[in-house]
Amino acid sequence: MTTADEIRRLAAERNAVILAHNYQRGEVQDVADYTGDSLELARRATQVEADVIVFCGVYFMAETAAILNPGKTVLIPDPTAGCPMADMITGAQLRELKAKHPGAKAVCYVNSTAEVKAECDMCVTSGNAERVMATFAPDEEIIFVPDQHLGSHIMGLLGRKYVLWPGYCPTHAALTAKSIADARAAHPGAPVLVHPECAKDVRDAADERLSTGGMCRYARESSASEIIVGTEVGILHRLREENPGKVFHPVNERLVCPNMKKTTLDNLAECLREMKTRVVVPEEIASRARRAIDAMLAIG
Ligand code: 13P
Ligand code: SF4
Fold first, then answer.
1. Residues whose CB falls within 8 Å of the CB of residue 120, separated by 6 or more in sequence, listed in order
2. What's the 98 CA to ligand 1 centre distance in angstroms?
């Protein structure tokens, strides 16, 4: 059994920074230097001074860190930790879609492969999608991939139509409007937060549609003493640690992203000990993908 002390010692020896997503296991979040949502972690990855970035999350997140840091070593404890939504569209499929919509701007959710990002003009995360998408001129045709739900959520907010790809998150697909109604009945008066990756009827049944970072901010700022949380349950660890006086109820306590749970203290320690597995994005793809990510980060 690896201890947190061992990991901190290994990280110091390797001059490594450990970044963890809000859905990681509690013990992994606790040992990390920084825990955040996709946008916060991408921003953090641009500010790293250490030689090595260990990314505790899913593959596309580590890839984003590697794209933003071509000179650094980026490691992922379990390279099989993929995101099924990111794998729902390939670069070739996106090229085909673009050929059907000549002149359209292509936008990818950050939950996409480097190859798909390389085909896009702009990248968004759930934390900045509304702000970033608002920068497109009203008459521009927009292709949005791969998440149909985040895409339709932003279309609703901005009163626009995009060409959507039918991708979705299998974990969030388990949430239903009925489960939201049941949670409200069990905890009357508690506001309901859901992730914009949820289907429209679920989003409509909630009070707020927020990125995981947005949920952490909401919890800190809200006067509500009980909050119902409709996203992957890993976030409950951080919400409870940061808000000891408040009570958080998952809509569904079985809402687990199996890939996010592949990182453990054991494989994190092994990753630092053996310096593997390294995430490498070929520069030909990375340089094009970087344009879409940099365009997003420039908007803020
Ligand atoms: P956030 O950017 O809100 O952390 O979401 C990432 C994700 O994969 C949600 O399923
Ligand atoms: Fe991908 Fe869904 Fe897991 Fe997020 S929760 S990493 S979108 S499968």
1. 94, 106, 107, 108, 112, 145, 289, 292
2. 26
Distance 257 CA to ligand 2 centre (A): 6
Pocket of ligand 1 (CB under 6 A): 22, 37-38, 111, 125-127, 169, 195, 197, 211-212
Q: Is residue 83 lining ligand 2, measured as CB closer than 6 Å?
A: yes
Whether the ω angle into residue 146 lies within 30 degrees of 0, i.e. cis, is yes
Strand partners, 208: 193
Does ligand 2 lie within 6 Å of residue 73's CB atom?
A: no
Q: In a 3-state reduction of DSSP, which class is residue 58? A: coil
Cβ proximity of 148 and 166 under 8 Å: yes
Which atom of ligand 2 lies closest to the CA of 231?
A: 5
Query: Which ligand neighbours the alpha carbon of 146 most closely?
Result: 2
Distance CA 214, CA 285 (A): 31
Structural domains for the chain:
3-83+260-280 (3.40.50.10800), 86-168+287-299 (3.40.50.10800), 175-250 (3.40.50.10800)
**Could you list the pLDDT tens digit for every one of the 300 residues in the chain?**
889 999 999 999 999 999 999 999 999 999 999 999 999 999 999 899 999 999 999 999 999 999 999 989 999 999 999 999 999 999 999 999 999 999 999 999 999 999 999 999 999 999 999 999 999 999 999 999 999 999 999 999 999 999 999 999 999 999 999 999 999 999 999 999 999 999 999 999 999 999 999 999 999 999 999 999 999 999 999 999 999 999 999 999 999 999 999 999 999 999 999 999 999 999 999 999 999 999 999 997
Nearest Cα neighbor of 62 from 50, 80, 49 is 80
CB 163 within 8 A of CB 144: yes
State the first-to-last Cα distance of the chain, in angstroms, to the nearest integer. 41
In the DSSP assignment, the letter for residue 173 is: G
